[in-house]
Amino acid sequence: CARFLRMEITKLGGYGSNFAIYDSSDSQNLIKQILKEMNLDDKRFQPSGILSRISNAKNALQDAAAFARQAGDFYEQKVADIYSRYEQKLQLNNALDFDDLLMLSIKLLQENKEVREKYQDRFDYLLVDEYQDNSHTQERMLELLSNGHNRFMVGDIKQSIYRFRHADPQIFNGKFQLFLENPDAGKLILLKENFRSQSEVLDATNGVFSHLMDQEIGDI
């Protein structure tokens, strides 16, 4: 996404192609600056908690305006104000945070038909590895890029480990169930033979997961 935005972000307006990418420390310092300007207590409005709320919003593809519309109590309304200032300061500094890389890429693909068709025409096939750790944001990007082209997704729901990064294994499980019930929706290839682990390891692993998984998925 960073490479894509270096080439295309000027079409969104408000950013230059030489934008900086803020890490979590940069973002937290910016939040602290905003709290100071707003005379808000950083013990009640903890920067890490504020950043988590903003990150969740961006991963739901909510910009500051959309977040403000659904803000309920006093705390949420203040977070919405902080989010708005945070966006403004990022843009003023020609900077993006990590969540912006996905959110702005999707915004650009959704809103700019010329850019969207350019990249849809560029790829005939999309291969997605570790599909069990896909997020709804990433899934939206895949939909925008594929436009009916062939998608090949590889994954194992038993190995999903990135929910703390907004991954949702039910995206994978939903596709799995869809292909089971409707073969016309896509071809399902089950890889049931493991060549890397001994039987003792596999038996222990399957024992741990047997009560969690649908029996149709089968053993590793």
Large-scale geometry: globular
- Report the order of strands and helices: HEHHHHEHHEHEHH
DSSP summary, beta strand count: 4
Radius of gyration from CA coordinates: 21 Å
How can the largest sheet be summarized?
2 strands, parallel
User: Strands of the largest sheet, in order across it?
Assistant: 1-2
Tally of helical runs: 10
Percent helix: 40-55%
Content-based structural category: mainly alpha
Compute the average pLDDT.
Answer: 88
Distance between the termini: 33 Å
Strand content: 5-15%
Q: Which residue ranges are poorly predicted, with pLDDT under 50 across at least 5 consecutive positions?
A: 215-220
Fold and architecture overview:
This protein has 220 residues and is mainly α. Helix content is 54%, strand content 6%. The chain is built from 10 helices and 4 strands. It has a two-stranded parallel sheet with strand order 1-2. α4 runs antiparallel to α5. It starts with a helix and ends in an 11-residue tail after the last helix. The C terminus is likely disordered.
Structure summarized in a few sentences:
The chain has 220 residues and is mostly helical. It has helices at residues 2-8, 24-37, 47-59, 64-70, 74-92, 98-111, 113-122, 136-146, 169-181, 199-209; strands at residues 20-22, 95-97, 125-128, 150-153.
